[in-house]
Design brief:
The chain is an alpha+beta fold. It is about 60% helix and about 15% strand. The protein contains six helices and five strands. Strand 4 and strand 5 form a beta hairpin.
């Protein structure tokens, strides 16, 4: 019995470390997803520098307490935790896509930048473009003013030539 307890304690410590270092955390109920769908989700998350953990609720509760993350919902039912160390929004986008196609998948709780995210905010966050998209939008805005200035100077130059 002692080796099993040691294994579980180590699992709690590892999960608590991951939770405390995470940029975003999502808890959701996955019951009904096939192994193929879970594997596809894990691959997408891995590409976005995020991981999905499936374990017992007791281990989740102990890890959350050890990581000192207050305010999480009670863990009940078959839960999975998504932990992102890269793009904070990517796990929300991936989970939102699954929720759109599978009504039985339920978002339970989440943290983004040390703030709790409720279910009604999930769709709003998932609609935010990723980091590269936001940077390209910013670059486009910066280029637009310079481009318009260049067009204006060019138009004045053509007008003076006539």
């Amino acid at each position: 019995m002692k080796p099993i307890i040691k294994i579980k304690e180590d699992e709690v410590k590892v999960l608590a470390k991951q939770l405390s270092e995470a940029k975003s955390i999502i808890v959701f109920e996955y019951l009904g997803l096939t192994a193929k769908e879970l594997t596809a989700l894990r691959k997408k998350l891995h590409a976005a520098n995020a991981k999905m953990y499936v374990s017992k609720n007791n281990i989740y509760a102990r890890a959350v307490a050890l990581a000192k993350l207050p305010g999480f919902v009670e863990f009940s039912g078959p839960n999975a935790i998504l932990i992102s160390n890269g793009d904070e929004i990517a796990p929300f986008k991936e989970l939102n896509e699954i929720i759109k196609t599978h009504a039985f998948v339920k978002y339970k709780d989440g943290i983004l930048e040390a703030k709790h995210i409720r279910e009604n905010e999930l769709t709003k966050i998932a609609s935010i473009p990723n980091r590269e998209g936001l940077l390209s939008m910013l670059l486009s805005c910066l280029q637009a003013s310079i481009r318009n200035l260049a067009y204006g100077v060019n138009a004045i130059a053509k007008q003076k030539q006539q």
